[in-house]
Amino acid sequence: MTTSARTRRAVTPDSHDFPTRPYDLVKEFTIALGVVIVLTIALAAVFSSPDEKAITLADWANAAPYDVVATAAGELAGTTTSAGYGAPYNTNGDGQTLGPLALQRWAGVTIPVDSANDLVLTPLSKVTNDPALTLALSQWKGAPAPRQSTWSNDYTTALTAAPDGNPASVKPGNYGPVPVIAAKFLDLARSGALAGALEPNGTFYGADTTRGLLLLADGAYLQDQARASNLGGNQWGMMNESGNYPGQPWMWLYTFWYQIPPFSTSSNADAQVWAVMAILTLALILIPFIPGLRSIPRLIPLYRLIWRDYYRGRNG
Amino acid sequence: MTAGSWTVRTRNRIARIVPPGQWLPDRQPAYVSSWIYVFGVLTLAALFVVIASGIILTLGGVTWWHVSALGHFVNSLHLWSVELFFAFMVIHLWGKFFMAAWRGKRALTWITGVLAFAGSIGTAFTGYLSQTNFDSQWIGTQAKDGLNSVGIGSFFNVLNPGQMLLWHVALLPFVIGLLTVAHVILVRRHGVVPPIDAQPPDEPTPAPTPESPADLTARR
């Protein structure tokens, strides 16, 4: 063993070689547990907890019917977020990349969602005794893809141009069966039957809300409600909760990056923020081995405050 | 005939990890004298309350807390115990950072602590996704893009509250529990880190030296 190695070993001595004093660990834990229980009960009693009711698809249809119609038309046109998302839902988008790393695409389509069929047409096909709807669906299915695309894109454009997006104010045009399909989709949503019709296997139990949430997020209503509660992405929304509650303040650093360039303007912001956080987390884990970082405690000597009794005794 | 006994070997192994008397010592080094030490045990105590309130929540079922005043109160207990847990843990973490508490072969103690912190963030996140209310709808639809962008979303679907709830109440708490046990064992094995530049009374105190990275490493 070299002298240098011996010197290093001597720097942090064994804690058992120091003078000791009585210390009751069990008593300390018991008191701590009591304090935490009392604090928790007091905070819960005084501040309660937020529980803003989930938005149902019927709520959405009743509160923002034009948004539902526009979303249905957008799903048919393939212009919604989910329709062009890419992995893990479909292959319609490249997904985000991190330089040469296309992690999103490489992970593959594991939760397949065909937005036009799964979110609009298949649920509507479960409606019976509606000749107008049956005819419209038949007309849609019988049309070639370019015709479907022209109908749905023209109708989506016309809805955007209409005052307030009101379907009744859309300028006349050849939209094929799309206006009927979108209007019937609104009826289905209003009836409350859409959520069940979105279930992939028609199962009685609905534990997976992936399709319903993708559909809701394709519309503007959910985001409008969130922004009204100061929960938008550029409002530190991920770490907040509705109401005056602390939410997840421990996610402040993750949320912080989304607020500043280049992340706030990047089309690959999510992947970039994840990469930054992965590097920072790895650095935090490996601090004991990183020169410079591991020396910060010595440069900012808060330790002298923590161990002031020891240093006072040693110097006295 | 004990040489080949797995039981004896396991017992010896355990004794080597933490010697008898060190599991629950009734004395501590005299330098253990600061309020900062309280936050480690407060974190552990808060974890107990988090787990206990969470277990009570599971008794009523997924949506119990939406329809029952008692369920809502238990949810509030769970929420605030989590907030306290993180507050104590963050203070504990920064306290240990400024004590350079990884010195003296304690790097693994630091690492298990940081992993428990990161794992706790993930566990809390799945809790927020399991609320079956507006917040979980919004957080899920926002968070999916981050997770999908790096491929995690292909097997960890934040839009599926059933999957998130099961992660929240089974695998993730189990991992946090294991990390916490490992962390506490390592603390007991190595003892509380001595102050920087401290020497036992019977050894000469070395003259202060220019900062050397080596003396703040995990080596002893």
Walkthrough of the structure:
The complex is a heterodimer of chains A (316) and B (220). Chain A is mainly α and 316 residues long. In chain A, 54% of the residues lie in helices and 1% in strands. Chain A is built from 17 helices and one strand. The model of chain A is unreliable at 1-10 (pLDDT under 50). Chain B has 220 residues and is mainly α. Chain B has seven helices and one strand; from the N terminus they run H-E-H-H-H-H-H-H. In chain B, helix 2 runs antiparallel to helix 4 (69-98). The longest helix of chain B is centred in the middle third of the chain and has 30 residues, at 69-98. The model of chain B is unreliable at 207-220 (pLDDT under 50). The interface between A and B is large, with 108 and 107 residues. Strand 1 (20-22) of chain A pairs antiparallel with strand 1 (27-29) of chain B, so a sheet runs across the interface.
> Major beta sheet of chain A, specifics?
none
Q: With helices defined by DSSP (H or I, 4 residues minimum), what is the helix count of chain A? A: 17
Helix content of chain B: 55-70%
**Biggest sheet features of chain B:** none
How would you sum up the global shape of chain A? Answer: elongated
Radius of gyration of chain B: 22 Å
What percent strand of chain A? under 5%
Write the H/E string of chain A, N to C. Answer: HEHHHHHHHHHHHHHHHH
Which regions of chain B have little confidence, pLDDT < 50, spanning 5+ residues?
A: 207-220
Q: What order do the SSEs of chain B take from the amino end to the carboxyl end, as H and E?
A: HEHHHHHH
End-to-end separation of chain A in angstroms reads 36 Å
Distance between the termini of chain B: 38 Å
Mean pLDDT of chain A: 92
How many strand units of chain A? 1
Distinct helical segment count of chain B: 7
